[in-house]
Design the sequence.
């Protein structure tokens, strides 16, 4: 099978052009510093809770020696070597991402594995023939794309009958932080009303969206609560501070309200009472 690489131009962001990392994930190649996205993914992937969830999701692929698997939205290739170790040298691993910067990085990292192919393409129109893969996955991709159902349909199309489809994503609306009553309203606006990606509640919707596809059966759901008591961790990897700044830029709260909110949670961090939680979901199934 020969991969037909799609010569795409990166589409515009599916959400308003806001001052946060999340709004630019579909437009990485046009950003001032594509490397910051690669560095972010690398650092986030080192977190124990993300590692544990990714291990679960890749096990759900039920891969065996010699099989063919694809990672859609593979980014800089953080999971490709793990997939290769599961199918071994006689198997085939494909990674696809819409960002050429990500793809070039992944190619470089996987250059020592001849059975790993990385290419640029659009998840809504995967340039692979029908019924090719034994398993396919995507992780934290659907929150960014214009049409998640179309991506799921494409993943199903290129998977063999009996093959596995595994999708992981977060529910940003599930975010909670420990806060006093005095800033509850400001906090609610920051966590629930800021626009920063196309589908912030996609995680909780995954099972329903997979159920809607008539070609997927044996659907299983796994949920995990991500948590940290470090404000720095919440800022760096879960974009808490960015969401507060975006609330100001989107006119949802005033600068004074933001400062009050920020000072309060920084004080909680000093006192040791800060807690952040958010839910992540993996939904898996088999193609009929």
Sequence:
């Amino acid at each position: 099978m020969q991969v037909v690489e799609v010569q795409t131009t990166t589409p515009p962001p599916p959400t308003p052009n806001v001052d946060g990392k999340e709004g630019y994930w579909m437009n990485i190649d046009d950003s001032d510093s594509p490397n910051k996205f690669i560095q972010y993914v690398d650092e986030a992937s080192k977190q124990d809770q993300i590692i544990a969830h990714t291990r679960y999701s890749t096990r759900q692929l039920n891969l065996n020696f010699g099989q063919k698997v694809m990672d859609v939205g593979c980014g800089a290739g953080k999971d490709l070597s793990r997939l290769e170790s599961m199918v071994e040298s006689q198997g085939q691993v494909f990674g696809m991402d819409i960002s050429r910067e990500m793809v070039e990085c992944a190619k470089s990292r996987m250059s020592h594995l001849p059975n790993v192919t990385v290419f640029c393409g659009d998840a809504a129109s995967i340039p692979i023939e029908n019924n090719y893969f034994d398993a396919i996955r995507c992780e934290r991709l659907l929150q960014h794309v214009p049409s998640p159902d179309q991506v799921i349909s494409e993943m199903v199309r290129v998977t063999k009958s009996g093959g596995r489809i595994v999708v992981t994503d977060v529910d940003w609306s599930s975010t909670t932080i420990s806060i006093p009553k005095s800033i509850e309203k400001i906090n609610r606006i920051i966590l629930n009303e800021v626009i920063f990606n196309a589908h912030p509640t996609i995680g909780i919707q995954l099972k329903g969206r997979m159920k809607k596809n008539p070609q997927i059966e044996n659907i299983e759901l796994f949920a995990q609560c991500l948590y940290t008591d470090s404000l720095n961790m919440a800022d760096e990897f879960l974009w808490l501070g960015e969401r507060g700044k975006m609330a100001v830029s989107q006119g949802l709260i005033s600068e004074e309200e933001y400062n009050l909110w920020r000072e309060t949670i920084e004080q909680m961090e000093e006192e040791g009472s800060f807690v952040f939680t958010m839910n992540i979901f993996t939904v898996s199934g088999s193609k009929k």
User: Anything to note?
Assistant: Residues 268 and 274 are 5 Å apart (CA to CA). The first strand starts at residue 68 and ends at 72. The domain at 22-170+197-222+282-287 is CATH 3.40.50.150 (Rossmann fold).
